[in-house]
Amino acid sequence: MKIIGIAMALGLLSGSAALGQDSSCLEIKGPSTIDAPTGAEKDTQIKIVDIGSSATVKGLEFTLVGGKWSLDAQSFAKILALKDDPGRKAMTTGWFKDGSLQTSRPFFLPGEDRGVVCHPEVASVNPPSASPGAIADILTHLNLEDCRPLMDNLVASKMQKLGSNHFVVILFKPTGDLCIQSKPTATSGDLIYTAVVDNGAGSQAPSIEFTKCDAPSLSPNNPEGETLASKVQKGEQRSILSPIEFPVRQCFGSSAQVTVKNKFVDTAGPHEVSKATTVTMFDKFRFSLQVGLLASAQHSHTFGLRKDGNDMKIFDKGPTGTGPEYVATVILYGLPHYFGFGNPPKGNGDGEKEALASYFGRDPFHENSFADHLGLVLGAGLNSPGDRVVAGLSYEIGYGINLIGVYEYAKLKELVGVSEGNVFTGTAEQIPTRDSWKGRWIGGVSIDMRYFTRLIKRSTS
Fold it and tell me: How far apart, in whole angstroms, are the C-alpha atoms of residue 62 and residue 95?
């Protein structure tokens, strides 16, 4: 039998003892009103659950009113159909309050053999095996398979609450060891939910401490972000099958650190643990430094003199026509997000959805929607920044490579009082010119500065 199954059986015994109940089956004869077990009158929900996984069977869950379970004909028919289910022997009733399992009782249906379906092996377990030390032994030996159904329930509830997957759930053993994490790697700014599988049997309530949790930085590329003060969060004692959940945190940067502290007694004696776990995160960025190549017809011209017979005439030395102009650019990621497009919806004031609704930048590896790829581009001439500025939009077509459409302002020289081809009796330096700003829309491509640097090094080596 899997550890979770054993734990549920022990929870049944310890729960029954606490409520003054024996482990006899609950008889479900037909549509009727069934009273809650003694001591469970304040429970609010009943489910048909699988002992092995603690999962609800075929969505069979019902609301209790005043400790009474009103079972109508349609619901009874669904439960009666479980008689032919291959997993029938592993099914029991779970009585819940505020989402936490309070007690569990097997049940039998018309036509069933009570001795077969009522789990006599559970009823015959020696009560001392359900001691706090034995329960602590079970909890400390949880494995990935045991924790997976618990994680599935936690993830489903958070997904339903937030309406997005911008979170990570981390489930710890009472020893402080990681049992399972919903994602291998979180993302900077994700909500971090933590829980410990521990009902407090033979122990103090465990606590969670975020010993490293960076706050968002106004300088997103600055690794020396401000760090939030450590905050100890204590959980409440729950049922053995209900993880103790702790207040949610939101951390930024490339990692966070979570420390689990716990004191418990198992059959080997007392233990005091303090174990740290590093949560790796993909960092987020608001901008990228790049080099843009524009197909521009706005070039800085120079003028000179050339001999035409006995005269010296003014001519344009160029460059002329459409050719490349290089600009240093800043690509601001996710422009639509700054106007609320593509952001998760805000919540009802509990703070969790609101925390995700703000835009803190982009994880370039995993956030690749249209809103993430569309950016704002600002730039200046690579050689003479004061003579050329650009502003417009960018669209990422590959990591670090963007198509850009910008309005280009360029400072160009133009002749004053003379024209190209005029006879001029002075020197070339005396040709009258002035600076004039001109603008036009043009397109081009922009690449990450690191690509450009490597290209230049290779071409000049």
Answer: 10
